Amino acid sequence: MTYSSAVEFGLNLKQAQHLLGLRIDDALRPLGLSLGLWRVLREIGRTPGASASELGRTSFHTPQTVGGLLQRLQDQQLVERSSARGRIVENHLTRQGKKVLGQATAAVDEVIGGSLAHLDAAHIEQAGRFLTEYIAALTSPQRDS
Question: Are 20 and 57 in contact (CB under 8 A)?
């Protein structure tokens, strides 16, 4: 498909992200998770003791949203929260949280792997490089045109 405009490219990228997110949500639902909950759980697994603010930056959520997600994870006994750094609340996975994170990550890997299965490996590698460069361009300071 040829892209007639930058808008078309952006909308197709957004549609792919949306459809993948729906598939991931479907796969995570039996575990009592959503994509948003899994992202926060995953980031806690990667950075034990992270604060809500730190988790928000790495999981693409606002601090307010992370607070609600953390409460849900705590209610499911997947996360423990403690005030170990003064006023900063640290977040850690429970034993059950580690188990569910492993199951959820495997489910997400299966969804993403399945969605890529019909694509050529060289195209996947090329797309990965492109997306890395595109993300870097979007996160670098904007220059005046």
Answer: no
- Are the C-beta atoms of 35 and 26 separated by less than 8 Å? no
Q: At what angle do helices 63-75 and 35-46 cross, to 10 degrees?
A: 90
pTM (2 d.p.): 0.86
Question: Would you give the end-to-end CA distance of the chain in angstroms?
Answer: 28
Which segments of 51-94 does DSSP mark as H helices, in order? Answer: 52-59, 63-75
Across the strands, what pairs with 81?
Answer: 91
Q: How many angstroms separate the CA atoms of 32 and 23, rounded?
A: 15
Six-digit token pair at 64? 């307010």
- Supply φ then ψ for residue 85, to 5 degrees: -120, 65
54: number of Cβ within 10 Å: 18
Three-state SS for 47?
Answer: coil
Mean pLDDT by 10 residues, the chain (145 residues): 76 95 98 97 96 90 92 97 82 98 98 96 95 92 67
The distance from CA 23 to its chain's CA centroid, rounded to whole angstroms, is 13
Structure token pair of residue 38: 């899994």
